[in-house]
Write a structure and sequence with these properties.
This protein is an all-alpha fold. Helix content is 71%, strand content 0%. The longest helix has 14 residues.
C-alpha cells in the first residue's frame, strides 16, 4: 500500500484536513499537497508519517 494511499485513507477516517495532517505529522503544512504532486519522501520521513498514522489509530 503506497504512503499516499495510507494518508488519503487516514484523512477520510479522521476528517483531518491535509494541512493539519502535514503540520501534525511533520510540521509541514504542504506535505500532503507535495506528495500528491509527486514528492518522494526519504525513508526516515516515511517512517515518521507511518508512525503518526498508527498513533491516530487510523
Amino acid at each position: 500500500m503506497s504512503l499516499l494511499f495510507q494518508i488519503e485513507r487516514c484523512l477520510k477516517r479522521t476528517r483531518l484536513t491535509p494541512t493539519r495532517f502535514g503540520r501534525n505529522a511533520l510540521g509541514d503544512p504542504r506535505l500532503v499537497f507535495d506528495l500528491r504532486r509527486g514528492r518522494e519522501p526519504r525513508p526516515r520521513t516515511m517512517a515518521r508519517i507511518e508512525a503518526y498514522i498508527r498513533g491516530l489509530g487510523a
